[in-house]
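Appendix C: a fully annotated inverse folding record. The material below is reproduced so that readers can follow the format used throughout the book. The structure is listed first as tokens, followed by the designed sequence.
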């Protein structure tokens, strides 16, 4: 399922018929992430269940979506959107019904042979409603006073996702319909050890964790690549390798680069840049180029807000050259100047219209700089 977000489509891909959750502290960007998915995901119908969230967020969708154009159909985005409004000001007893109502509507469209995306914001509010109702019914409480059946209810909700094959009809080819279910989780204080997050993690296929550190550093989308994961990487990678060989291998290399870069950054805070070897500083700067030039996207820029898959493949091929390049520098300052220039050029490339004349020239200039520097490094080694 293409989303237009590079960090999701490359690092933590989603599939039609799959499930995912996006937990994170308040203000980290969970609702904004769901808004992006509802605008740009490659599906036919989007069902948004506003389950116990603020009424202002529902109003924002109702105001903005009719004015936005769906890239696939050219019609208003509201034409493919269904909203179930059950805000925090509404009765608690209706909150559980809103989630099941949204799923039933999504399943109805799936039976028609359509690809459907169901977004529940937020499943934590739904669980809190279950806790209140369970308390009033005087049922035996479980962990943190949630009902003992919390995990089974959450599992039953996510298990309604999947792909179905419809019966053949006269004169028509065999059709399939899919339902993707994604829910946000709002753990108090960003504590992922609480019951709702843990019960959700055991059943979903992808975990897109948003972190306070990344949102505070303005690294959006604030999905933390060090703790997030997906079970769909091999499935998606095998199809993308037809367009870009060794896709899965380089995605794993990128993940290890980010982990190494994070460890080196922590060491630099203690011993300073002078106490780090040249190879370590190059690894750290490579991870920063990937972080800022590839994983980050600017939602306020017309071109960078949505990155189509062909553009992602071109940009990731460029990242492969940077990852596998054998760079050498005389000093740490030289390395920093080179990679900062590279980082800024790639960032500016993301703001140019894809396959335009300016885009092509900028991409060729970056590739020429890389080639020239790597040839100089090779001559120096010889």
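Designed amino acids, in order:
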């Amino acid at each position: 399922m293409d989303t237009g977000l590079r960090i999701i489509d490359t690092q933590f891909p989603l599939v039609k018929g799959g499930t995912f959750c996006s937990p994170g502290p308040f203000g980290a960007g969970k609702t904004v992430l769901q808004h992006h998915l509802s605008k740009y995901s490659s599906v036919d119908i989007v069902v948004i269940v506003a389950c116990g969230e603020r009424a202002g967020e529902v109003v924002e969708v109702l105001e903005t979506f009719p004015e936005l154009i769906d890239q696939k159909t050219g019609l208003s985005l509201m034409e493919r959107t269904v909203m179930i409004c059950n805000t925090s000001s509404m009765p608690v007893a209706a909150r559980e019904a809103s989630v099941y109502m949204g799923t039933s509507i999504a399943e109805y469209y799936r039976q028609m042979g359509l690809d459907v995306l169901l977004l529940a914001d937020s499943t934590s509010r739904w669980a809190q409603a279950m806790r209140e109702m369970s308390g009033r019914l005087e049922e035996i409480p479980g962990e943190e006073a949630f009902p003992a059946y919390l995990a089974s209810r959450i599992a039953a909700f996510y298990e309604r996702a999947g792909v179905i094959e419809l019966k053949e009809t006269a004169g028509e080819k065999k059709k399939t319909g899919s339902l993707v279910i994604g829910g946000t989780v709002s753990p108090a204080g960003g504590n992922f050890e609480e019951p709702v997050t843990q019960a959700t993690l055991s059943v979903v296929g992808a975990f897109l964790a948003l972190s306070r550190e990344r949102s505070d550093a303005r690294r959006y989308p604030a999905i933390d690549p060090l703790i997030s994961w997906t079970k769909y990487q091999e499935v998606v990678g095998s199809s993308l390798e037809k367009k870009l060989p060794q896709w899965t291998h380089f995605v794993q290399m990128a993940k290890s680069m980010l982990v190494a870069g994070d460890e080196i950054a922590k060491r630099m805070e203690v011993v300073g840049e002078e106490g780090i070897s040249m190879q370590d500083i190059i690894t750290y700067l490579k991870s920063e180029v990937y972080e800022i030039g590839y994983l980050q996207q600017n939602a306020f820029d017309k071109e960078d807000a949505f990155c189509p898959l062909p553009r992602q493949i071109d940009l990731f091929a460029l990242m492969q050259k940077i990852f596998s390049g054998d760079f050498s520098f005389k000093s740490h300052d030289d390395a920093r100047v080179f990679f900062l220039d590279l980082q800024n050029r790639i960032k500016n490339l993301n703001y140019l219209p894809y396959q335009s004349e300016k885009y092509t020239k900028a991409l060729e200039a970056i590739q020429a700089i890389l080639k020239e520097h790597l040839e100089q490094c090779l001559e120096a080694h010889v």
